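Lab notes, practical 5.
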Amino acid sequence: MTNHPKPLRIAITGATGFLGRALVARLAARGHSPVAITRERSGAGRDAILWNPERGELHPDALAGFDAVINLAGENVAQRWTDEVKRAIRESRVKATDLLARTIGAMASPPNVFLSGSAIGIYGDRGAELLDESSPRGQGFFPDVVAAWEAATAPAKRGDVRITHLRTGLVLDANGGALAKMLPPFRLGLGGRIGSGEQMVSWIALDDWTRAVEHLLHAGHAEGPVNLVAPSPDSNADFTHALGTALGRPTMIPVPETAIRLAFGEMGETTLLASQRVVPTRLLGTGFAFEYETVEQALKAAVG
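Output from the prediction step:
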């Protein structure tokens, strides 16, 4: 990745979450000035910006003087999707994004860049079909949520503001996200493929994810959706084998599809059984170079 010496002042929502913490640490280490946009100032730093997206509260001048805004706000999807949870998943993303976008759109001198969270879940369950940013969206609850999430950035589109949608896949790190939840049974030798294991998993190492987001702050032609996934998606069976190998443990105990449906319902269908073979066409087109191109490399680094 090309080095960019100019330090940026960056406002970030979701700065205390799994991805946000890692991103703030990288940006600060690289000489940038990340500032959290948060509901509570406690633990967020003295420069933190207060907001309440549910009530539409963000001071009109809160983003003045910032070079970029990164939006990672959103209810955790890794829980059983009751009607209440589904409403929270949608509203937490759409309302927060709309509030930021309207605030940016009303500014006389807005930030130059608006990187807004998104997900490869927009493609839905697509089997072995190769998917890139030009692929049509899928059908169902979560593709609908992601489409509305991306559309909510529209009010920010004025002048030279560049809007990029961070379509993120499965982010791999032993200390957070899905991998951290998978590790306990796998360390005990109780891991195995999910269902048939044929469903495709599109993943990215956490370090590559933070590097990619920083890269996109400077990639002036990277506008619209950008898939944040490694170049080589894997089947769930291959992913499972690679994790077992990295841990030195067997992976002989499959999890039946019926067990996933009973335990997790629609969330399990959408996030564990669905197949998404996604590639990062636009990210590679910006000149970004991955440090972890294979799942074996990524998992060895994460759990080794």
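Observations recorded by the TA: Residues 9-172+204-230+278-292 form a domain with the Rossmann fold fold (CATH 3.40.50.720). The CA atoms of residues 13 and 93 lie 11 Å apart.
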